[in-house]
Amino acid sequence: MGKVVGIDLGTTNSVVAVMEGGKPVVIANSEGMRTTPSVVGFNKDGELVVGQMARRQAVLNPQNTYYGVKRFMGRKYPELTPESKQVPYTIRRDEYGSIKIKCPRLKKDFAPEEISAKILRKLAEEAERYLGEPVTGAVITVPAYFNDSQRQATRDAGRIAGLEVLRIINEPTAASLAYGLDQERSQKILVFDLGGGTFDVSVLEVGDGVFEVRATSGDTQLGGGDFDKRIVDWLAEQFLEQEKVDLRKDRQALQRLTEAAEKAKIELSGVSVTDINLPFITATEEGSKHIETRLMRPQFEDLCGDLVSRLTRPIKRALNDARLTPVQIDEVVLVGGGTRMPMIKALVRSFIDKEPNENVNPDEVVAVGAAIQSGILAGEVKEILLLDVTPLSLGLETIGGVTKKLIPRNTTIPVRRSDIFSTGENNQTMVEVHVVQGEREMSKDNKSLGRFKLTGIPPAPRGIPQVQVAFDIDANGILQVTARDRTTGREQSVVVQGASTLSEGEINRMINEAAEFAEEDRQRRERIEKRNKAKALTDQALRRLKDVTLDFGTQFTSGYRRQIEALNAEIMDSLDKDDERRLDRAQADLEDVLYELKREVRLQYEDEEDEGIFDSIRRTLVGDDEDDYPYTPRGSSYGNDYDTPRYPERSDYGQPRYDERRYDERQTYGSPPSRYERNDRYDDEYDEWDSGDRPSPRSRRPSPEPRRYPPKDSDSYYTRDRSRRIPKENQWDEEDDDWF
Predict the structure, then answer these.
(1) Which of 211, 242, 382, 556 could join 552 in a cystine, given CB atoms 3.0 to 4.6 angstroms apart?
(2) What ranges in 427-579 are assigned the alpha helix state H?
(3) What is the pLDDT of residue 625?
(4) What does UniProt give as the signal peptide span (predicted)?
């Protein structure tokens, strides 16, 4: 099995972390950022882009760029509010009432789970790149107030991404894991989590390795994006009043307004006033129109007054459910980028009367907690017990449409509860079990999770048959319902899959399509990397050739220059014509040429090192004219042919000799000869030259007649070792290779 990671799948940004050496580590993406924007898009070529690259194209390509999709997961189209539909891309409903996101570029529709799966796949690939091993499992966080349908949708997104979702964990619970891991003393923590699209507040008791969630509450349709929208509406209303144009009906203008609003909100967290400038926001008959205005922090806080009021209700509810007062809270942990706003900190401070703890990074703490939970499941982290709760009540619809709650909210999970029900009509042989989730008294006001039927009940007067219905919630918060007739023992058990907006067939289809997309993306990436590598190789070859030319001269590199320039031209031509086979061949040939050039340069440096420091200085000052090197004939007075080097490093007169080894290696590898003719190769077996002639410094070599000592006008010659004088009339014996 591969590695298991922790993933914070956020509305605005997502983070992936992993346990290494018993410590959680946040993994940076390929752009070097520790958070990845939860944005998915398709560029003009139809290629999939995720993260920062998708975010960059949002203004010019708004219909094919999707963000904030987490809010649509696990929901039906009628459940959406008009404000949530106000996005630059197109949202529609299918024949089953589910949400579909239209992609004009590919001419197809995506489910929100598919879009989220592409984000999860991106995070898993970044983790694989960092770890160097495949990632097969994940612990994914969800808002604590997600219902069963939204949790099922998150699990489906993980399956589509090719991940085994080992655990679904609440975001505030994960944050408390990250904060309280090193805490030894027992304390009560309030986790205030304001993300981009959701809001949660949880009360936990931490101590002795036990993390117990006492209560949780929240709002899945309230987040930082709603604060951004207040600025967008303010700008749009001002522009509508002045220019009579509603920018919210223009997709590109709406996207630019959204980005400017988010930037202004972030700036107002640190300064008291910010300028908003949007040139050429639209055009009318009078010409181009611009937005140039100023927003102050008190004005922004006044725009968001009702949103702040909505935050107070979940805090009060969580404290009441936990049976705690604000004075009993020991620490307040802020999670999510929205908690950086000064008015949010002031709200928390007014309730708890304590300074919020800012020792944890609000953007990364949830992913860190998810990684710790993955370590608990893998056995890397021991002596930690996590006790989570179910956020909403679960029950059945009874006669008259009234909800009978079996599991109240904030019940510690995993949990199993059951109750006895009976028939409502005489001789009734079948009952329908309708599972709902919510806090309302009437079933129609709650979330319907699914229906199933129990048949084969013996006919009897109403109220006589006894049907036992049991609810079983696992550690992920996924519900399983069992109904059993106590008279016949007939039983019907079902995992509530109806809560998911996707059928099993749709999930399998999306998994296959995701695999096809992954293969296409891999091939496209390999093709791009191959082209980039070929271009980089041509630049590297030219730089290497330039450096060697400066060190050894143009004569040394002339042969290599012709080969490199020809291969570079062939590579560029094959790139233009998209001929991969020809590109591979030319690239391999160029790599071979560079290898030979590198080897030749190394041999040159080795020869210089063998000469010694004084010889190098002498050659630098005097020069290196090879025509002046003396020639030592075979059989001379240096010794016999077996125990004396044929071309010693130095003659008696300090002249350097030829390096026979270097000559043979150059000829073998086909590089241009620098001191001997190409045909003059020495034959070790016969101890002579192949051409039958003696070696010469250059092609225009002198005759094999030895140099005379003293000069020609003298009456005699000296032998090489000057041991004896030879009369001038004596001649050279070619057969014995010596003087007469």
Answers:
(1) 556
(2) 504-552, 554-577
(3) 46
(4) none
Contact 125/177 with Cβ under 8 angstroms? no
Secondary structure (H, E, C), 23-43: EEEECCCCCCCCCEECEEEEC
d(CA 179, CA 364): 11
For residues 53 and 33, the answer to whether their CB atoms sit within 8 Å is no
Distance CA 421, CA 464 (A): 10
pLDDT of residue 646: 43
Distance between CA atoms of residues 44 and 381, nearest Å: 46
The pLDDT value given to residue 735: 55
Proportion of the chain in helix, strand, coil states, percent, rounded to 5: 40, 25, 35
Distance CA 403, CA 436 (A): 8
Instruction: Spell out the residues 6+ positions from residue 205 whose beta carbon is closer than 8 angstroms to its own.
Output: 186, 187, 188, 189, 212, 214
Residue whose tokens read 């900190």: 345
Q: Return d(Cα 235, Cα 217) in angstroms, integer.
A: 33
Residue 370: closest CA among 514, 158, 71, 214: 158
| Residue that the structure tokens 């143009």 belong to | 554
What is the maximum alpha-carbon separation in the chain?
149
pLDDT in tens, 218-260: 888 888 889 999 999 999 999 999 888 888 888 888 889 999 9
Q: Which CATH number fits domain 390-502: 2.60.34.10, 3.40.50.20, 2.60.40.10, 1.25.40.10?
A: 2.60.34.10
Closest CA relative to residue 171, chosen from 411, 337, 384, 409: 337
Catalytic residue among 3, 70, 100, 289: 70
Q: Which of 57-71, 171-185, 368-382, 651-665 has the highest mean pLDDT?
A: 57-71
Please say if 171 is a catalytic residue. Answer: yes
The per-residue pLDDT of the chain, averaged, comes to 79
Q: Which residue in the block uniquely carries the two structure tokens 């080097």? A: 645
Q: What is the pLDDT of residue 662?
A: 43
Which structure tokens are listed for 675? 């001191």
Q: Is 383 a catalytic residue?
A: no
Given the residues 126, 156, 193, 226, select the one marked as catalytic: 193
654: Cβ contacts below 8 Å, ≥ 6 apart: none
418 versus 504: which is more confidently predicted? 418
Which one-letter DSSP state was computed for residue 697? S
The correct CATH number of 3-223+307-388 out of 3.30.420.40, 3.30.70.100, 1.10.10.350, 3.30.2320.30 is: 3.30.420.40
CA distance 681 to 663: 8
Provide the residue ranges of all domains of the chain, joining segments of one domain with +: 3-223+307-388, 224-306, 390-502, 505-611
> What pLDDT does residue 101 have?
92
Structure tokens at 723: 């041991």
Say whether the peptide bond before residue 314 is cis (omega within 30 degrees of 0).
Answer: no
Listed in order, strand segments (DSSP E) in 106-163 are 108-110, 135-142
Q: Which of 8, 219, 363, 364 is catalytic?
A: 8
Q: Is 193 a catalytic residue?
A: yes
Q: Which helix (H) or strand (E) holds 169?
A: strand 164-170
Range 224-306: architecture per CATH: Alpha-Beta Complex (3.90)
pLDDT of residue 559: 84
What lies within 8 Å, CB to CB, of 96 at 6+ separation is none
Residues 124 and 113: their CA atoms lie apart, in Å, by 16
Q: What is the pTM of this model?
A: 0.66
Q: Which residue has the higher pLDDT, 27 or 524?
A: 27
Active site residue 301: no
User: Which listed residue (113, 114, 126, 171) is catalytic?
Assistant: 171
Cα–Cα distance, 162 to 134 (Å, whole number): 11
CA 318-480-402 angle, to 5 degrees, is 65
Q: Which of 10-19, 342-351, 396-405 has the lowest mean pLDDT?
A: 396-405
Lowest mean pLDDT among 15-24, 427-436, 598-607: 598-607
